[in-house]
């Protein structure tokens, strides 16, 4: 060992052509410190919000959206900057992310998203890259601030607690439920469900019979005339109707419903005391007693004290939106609900809430899905029609 140490020392002392090996080592060590300091300084400089928004692609798009969210301004005065969420805090992961960012430099040079139109076109792809990264690391950047173990369940709202506690038990990634929390969701996320499109095609190919009972496959506009020139209101999806008359490409539909006697009576409901919207009428039409025909005396809803009366109205609509069996619609809505609403949490059973509670509950859930408007309306109607008000033995 002593000989080895002496040999090493003699090697370091041995004169080089211009400098001793020891001097070279010392210079290399100092140069390494300078290089590391410079590299780390440059790395941190690219880790600032000022750097992130120095290009107009970010400055004029996602940065503007961030300023309207709770991550920008809140009662605690804590602001999340771009690198807080989009740059890993662990050094090795940070370096890997910086290497990936070389592609973004390429995109900047060649103008991949240098206009608003190009940005919106690529937005879904860009978002999916980040969602995949968050899913892979368990939303680590989010949880540097939002840690399950630090959450105070006692001060959390009942609604938030109902979703967050199961997520904490599963150690679930935040991005599963909170896409769009700091930036707008890509417009491409809202798409037409092929299964719903098939139902609509079936309805278009159906030849309905006069006097037959049907259900609307989607929301449709109703008219006062068979020429379909005078709009009268909007008939909601899955509403029961009876076909009274047919003329060319138009059908006259009889809609049985209930309405509250307070107000203008524009909204007609499917059942007594249930806020299951069937039809929304224009104000003038709603107040026309020759069109909206009362069928019996009003009765009072004991829960609210409001009087309701049964009514009927017959209006024209375009052909091609009727199906004879409600179960065709319910089957689609059931599958959609159980698939789309189980991503964030175990979805409540249909009969867990009553018909009047479901709209508020569903509104809080649907924002985390990519259902289009027609699908949302159909799923909500399904939940209301299969709520505890219609289920035997439900609480």
From TrEMBL:
The keyword Heme applies. It is a single-pass type II membrane protein. It comes from the Bacteria. Keywords: Cell inner membrane, Cell membrane, Electron transport, Heme, Iron, Membrane, Metal-binding, Transmembrane, Transmembrane helix, Transport. The chain crosses the membrane at residues 21-39. It is found in: Cell inner membrane. Signal peptide: none annotated. Gene3D superfamilies: Di-heme elbow motif domain. Residues 16-187 form the NapC/NirT cytochrome c N-terminal domain. Belongs to the TorC/TorY family. Belongs to the NapC/NirT/NrfH family. This is Cytochrome c-type protein. The gene is torC.
């Amino acid at each position: 060992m002593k000989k080895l140490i002496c040999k090493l020392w003699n090697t370091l002392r041995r004169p080089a052509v211009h400098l001793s090996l020891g001097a070279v080592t010392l210079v290399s060590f100092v140069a390494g410190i300078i290089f590391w300091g410079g590299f780390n300084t440059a790395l941190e400089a690219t880790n600032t919000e000022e750097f992130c928004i120095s290009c107009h692609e970010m400055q004029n798009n996602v940065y503007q959206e961030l300023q309207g969210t709770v991550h920008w301004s809140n009662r605690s005065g804590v602001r999340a900057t771009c690198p807080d969420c989009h740059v890993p805090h662990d050094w090795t992961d940070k370096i890997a992310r910086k290497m990936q960012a070389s592609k973004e430099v390429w995109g900047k040079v060649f103008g991949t998203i240098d206009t608003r139109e190009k940005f919106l076109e690529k937005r879904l792809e860009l978002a999916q890259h980040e969602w995949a990264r968050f899913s892979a690391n368990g939303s680590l950047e989010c949880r540097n601030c939002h840690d399950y173990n630090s959450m105070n369940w006692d001060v959390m709202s009942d609604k938030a607690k109902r979703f967050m506690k199961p997520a904490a038990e599963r150690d679930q990634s935040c991005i599963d439920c909170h896409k769009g929390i700091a930036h707008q969701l890509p417009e491409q996320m809202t798409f037409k469900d092929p299964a719903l499109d098939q139902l609509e095609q079936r309805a278009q190919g159906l030849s309905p019979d006069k006097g037959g009972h049907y259900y609307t496959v989607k929301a449709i506009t109703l008219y006062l005339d068979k020429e379909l020139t005078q709009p009268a209101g909007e008939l909601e999806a899955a509403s029961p109707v009876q076909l009274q008359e047919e003329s060319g490409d138009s059908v006259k539909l009889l809609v049985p419903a209930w309405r509250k006697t307070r107000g203008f009576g524009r909204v007609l409901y499917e059942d007594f005391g249930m806020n299951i919207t069937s039809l929304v009428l224009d104000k003038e039409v709603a107040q026309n007693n020759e069109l909206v025909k009362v069928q019996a005396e009003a009765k009072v809803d004991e829960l609210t004290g409001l009087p309701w009366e049964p009514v009927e109205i017959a209006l024209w609509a375009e052909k091609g939106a009727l199906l004879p069996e409600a179960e065709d619609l319910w089957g689609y809505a059931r599958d959609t609900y159980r698939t789309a609403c189980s991503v964030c949490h175990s979805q409540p059973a249909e009969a867990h809430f009553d018909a009047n509670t479901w709209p508020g509950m569903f509104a809080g859930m649907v924002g985390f899905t990519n259902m289009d408007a027609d699908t949302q309306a159909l799923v909500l109607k399904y939940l209301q029609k299969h709520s505890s008000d219609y289920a035997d033995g439900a609480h």
